[in-house]
Design brief:
single chain, 7 helices, rod-shaped
Protein backbone atom coordinates (compact mmCIF):
# COMPACT_ATOMS: atom_id res chain seq x y z
CA UNK A 1 0.00 0.00 0.00
CA UNK A 2 1.11 3.55 -0.69
CA UNK A 3 1.57 5.88 2.23
CA UNK A 4 -0.70 8.92 2.41
CA UNK A 5 2.10 11.46 2.41
CA UNK A 6 3.30 10.20 -0.99
CA UNK A 7 -0.18 10.44 -2.48
CA UNK A 8 -0.46 14.02 -1.30
CA UNK A 9 2.64 14.93 -3.25
CA UNK A 10 1.03 13.94 -6.54
CA UNK A 11 -0.57 16.65 -8.67
CA UNK A 12 -3.40 16.38 -11.15
CA UNK A 13 -2.51 15.77 -14.79
CA UNK A 14 -1.74 19.10 -16.44
CA UNK A 15 -2.48 19.50 -20.14
CA UNK A 16 0.37 20.94 -22.18
CA UNK A 17 0.15 24.61 -23.15
CA UNK A 18 -1.66 25.25 -26.44
CA UNK A 19 0.54 25.33 -29.50
CA UNK A 20 1.37 28.86 -30.62
CA UNK A 21 1.21 30.21 -34.13
CA UNK A 22 4.89 30.94 -34.13
CA UNK A 23 7.28 29.40 -34.99
CA UNK A 24 5.61 27.83 -37.98
CA UNK A 25 5.89 24.18 -38.78
CA UNK A 26 8.21 23.27 -41.68
CA UNK A 27 5.27 22.50 -43.97
CA UNK A 28 4.02 26.07 -43.69
CA UNK A 29 7.49 27.40 -44.57
CA UNK A 30 7.55 25.20 -47.65
CA UNK A 31 4.07 26.33 -48.68
CA UNK A 32 5.01 29.99 -48.15
CA UNK A 33 8.13 29.55 -50.29
CA UNK A 34 6.13 27.89 -53.07
CA UNK A 35 3.48 30.63 -53.06
CA UNK A 36 6.11 33.36 -53.04
CA UNK A 37 7.96 31.67 -55.90
CA UNK A 38 4.77 31.33 -57.95
CA UNK A 39 3.89 35.00 -57.39
CA UNK A 40 7.39 36.10 -58.34
CA UNK A 41 7.33 34.05 -61.54
CA UNK A 42 3.86 35.31 -62.45
CA UNK A 43 4.90 38.93 -61.86
CA UNK A 44 8.04 38.48 -63.95
CA UNK A 45 6.16 36.88 -66.84
CA UNK A 46 3.46 39.55 -66.69
CA UNK A 47 6.05 42.31 -66.70
CA UNK A 48 7.89 40.71 -69.63
CA UNK A 49 4.65 40.37 -71.61
CA UNK A 50 3.72 43.97 -70.84
CA UNK A 51 7.09 45.19 -72.16
CA UNK A 52 6.91 42.92 -75.19
CA UNK A 53 3.50 44.34 -76.14
CA UNK A 54 4.60 47.98 -75.87
CA UNK A 55 4.91 48.38 -79.68
CA UNK A 56 1.41 46.99 -80.13
CA UNK A 57 -0.04 49.43 -77.60
CA UNK A 58 1.85 52.31 -79.23
CA UNK A 59 0.64 51.35 -82.72
CA UNK A 60 -2.97 51.05 -81.54
CA UNK A 61 -2.71 54.40 -79.77
CA UNK A 62 -1.42 56.03 -82.95
CA UNK A 63 -4.14 54.34 -84.95
CA UNK A 64 -6.85 55.74 -82.70
CA UNK A 65 -5.54 59.25 -83.42
CA UNK A 66 -6.11 58.79 -87.14
CA UNK A 67 -9.23 60.59 -88.24
CA UNK A 68 -11.32 59.53 -91.20
CA UNK A 69 -11.03 62.30 -93.81
CA UNK A 70 -13.86 63.37 -96.08
CA UNK A 71 -11.61 63.09 -99.11
CA UNK A 72 -8.74 60.75 -98.43
CA UNK A 73 -5.50 61.44 -100.23
CA UNK A 74 -2.73 59.02 -101.12
CA UNK A 75 -0.67 60.66 -98.37
CA UNK A 76 -3.26 59.63 -95.80
CA UNK A 77 -3.07 56.00 -96.95
CA UNK A 78 0.75 56.25 -97.08
CA UNK A 79 0.74 57.38 -93.43
CA UNK A 80 -1.38 54.37 -92.54
CA UNK A 81 1.03 52.07 -94.38
CA UNK A 82 3.95 53.76 -92.61
CA UNK A 83 2.29 53.03 -89.28
CA UNK A 84 1.90 49.38 -90.28
CA UNK A 85 5.54 49.21 -91.40
CA UNK A 86 6.76 50.61 -88.09
CA UNK A 87 4.69 48.03 -86.24
CA UNK A 88 5.95 45.30 -88.58
CA UNK A 89 9.55 46.37 -87.92
CA UNK A 90 8.96 46.01 -84.20
CA UNK A 91 7.25 42.62 -84.59
CA UNK A 92 9.26 41.07 -87.46
CA UNK A 93 12.73 42.65 -87.46
CA UNK A 94 14.27 39.60 -89.11
CA UNK A 95 11.93 39.79 -92.13
CA UNK A 96 13.06 43.35 -92.93
CA UNK A 97 9.61 44.71 -93.78
CA UNK A 98 10.91 48.28 -94.21
CA UNK A 99 12.26 47.42 -97.65
CA UNK A 100 9.04 45.86 -98.89
CA UNK A 101 6.71 47.70 -101.24
CA UNK A 102 3.91 46.96 -103.67
CA UNK A 103 2.94 43.32 -103.95
CA UNK A 104 5.69 42.18 -101.59
CA UNK A 105 4.33 44.41 -98.84
CA UNK A 106 0.79 43.28 -99.60
CA UNK A 107 1.81 39.59 -99.43
CA UNK A 108 3.65 40.24 -96.18
CA UNK A 109 0.54 41.82 -94.65
CA UNK A 110 -1.64 38.97 -95.90
CA UNK A 111 0.75 36.30 -94.64
CA UNK A 112 1.26 37.81 -91.19
CA UNK A 113 -2.36 38.78 -90.65
CA UNK A 114 -3.67 35.22 -90.71
CA UNK A 115 -6.45 36.47 -92.98
CA UNK A 116 -5.15 36.63 -96.58
CA UNK A 117 -8.60 37.14 -98.10
CA UNK A 118 -8.82 40.77 -97.00
CA UNK A 119 -8.05 43.59 -99.49
CA UNK A 120 -4.41 44.09 -98.48
CA UNK A 121 -3.37 44.96 -102.02
CA UNK A 122 -5.94 47.76 -102.15
CA UNK A 123 -4.56 49.18 -98.91
CA UNK A 124 -1.05 49.20 -100.35
CA UNK A 125 -2.12 50.56 -103.74
CA UNK A 126 -4.11 53.38 -102.13
CA UNK A 127 -0.78 55.01 -101.20
CA UNK A 128 0.08 55.44 -104.89
CA UNK A 129 -3.23 55.86 -106.68
CA UNK A 130 -5.18 59.13 -106.74
CA UNK A 131 -8.45 57.22 -106.28
CA UNK A 132 -9.16 53.93 -104.60
CA UNK A 133 -12.16 51.75 -103.92
CA UNK A 134 -11.02 51.19 -100.34
CA UNK A 135 -12.75 53.60 -97.97
CA UNK A 136 -10.77 55.17 -95.14
CA UNK A 137 -12.95 53.39 -92.58
CA UNK A 138 -12.13 50.04 -94.22
CA UNK A 139 -8.44 50.95 -94.31
CA UNK A 140 -8.47 51.77 -90.61
CA UNK A 141 -10.29 48.52 -89.90
CA UNK A 142 -7.67 46.59 -91.89
CA UNK A 143 -4.82 48.25 -90.01
CA UNK A 144 -6.51 47.62 -86.66
CA UNK A 145 -7.13 43.99 -87.63
CA UNK A 146 -3.48 43.46 -88.61
CA UNK A 147 -2.09 45.05 -85.44
CA UNK A 148 -4.43 43.15 -83.11
CA UNK A 149 -3.76 39.78 -84.80
CA UNK A 150 -0.04 39.93 -84.12
CA UNK A 151 1.30 37.80 -81.30
CA UNK A 152 3.62 40.19 -79.54
Amino acid sequence: MIPDDVLEQLRDIQPPPPAGLWPLAPGWWILAALVLSALTIAAFLGWRRYRRQAPKRAALARLTRYTVPDRPTPEWYAGLNRLLKEAALARYPGDRPAGLSGQQWSRFLARTSGDPDRPWQQLVDASYLPRTELSPAEALQLADHWIRRQSW
